[in-house]
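Journal club side-thread
Mid-discussion, someone asked how the predicted structure for our own chain would compare to the paper's figures. Pasting it here so we can look after the session.
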Amino acid sequence: MEWYIYLLVIAAGALAGFINTLAGNGSLITLPLLIFLGLPANVANGTNRVAILMQTATSVTRYRKTGQLNVRHGLILSIPAVIGAVLGAQIAVSINEQLLRLIIGILMVAMLGLLLARPKRWLQGREETIAQKPGIGQMVALFFVGMYGGFIQVGVGVFLLAALVLGVGYGLKGMANPIKNLIVLCFTILALLIFVLNDQVEWVIGIILGLGNMVGAWIAVKVPAEKYANHIRWLLIIMVAASAIKLLGVWDFLIDQAG
């Protein structure tokens, strides 16, 4: 590849790492880029996990050093997500791509409704549940989020934030993002291993992308989430809406009509 392609990959990774750390859906940037560079969709899906692993390792380390991360609680919440991710990654190579895009698009529309309809719940969480042991319902929800994340990374941060904020009770201006990053780190380790065993990882481009993701994550951790919680929510709304438009084929339809 030309030298400027590597710069493009690093820049895209930095933007995705920033978005993923504060909100989610940064893979909506990186997955299409990897496919554009010539990787098959399944290899792009696996290669993207290299960058996610490097990004979340960076953000979790930084969150822990700044005292923003409850590691013990995060690891407990990671257990069902990891189990689900292993299952999701195992079936990732066989599902019909068009069906997958439709399912994700519908889920994004549902998530957009939650983001728009319950702003106070997203910004504040439920303080009385933060220190409590998560219930069966929350653990089941995290299992399915993990399965989705193992299957395809796009949008998993949004679903994790929904589970953590609307279910467990964390607020976006509290520990939701640090816990989310720890959960993604845990399940990405095993999900990536499955893609590696199926020879669906392009290491060179994945590491280059990951370097960009690490830069974006490092910057994002320095952003005071408690001050910009509402901005993060609107960032989520924009990214979710963009995802739904793309995945449901609305954008392609409009382009065809314009042509």
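Post-session note: The chain is about 80% helix and 0% strand.
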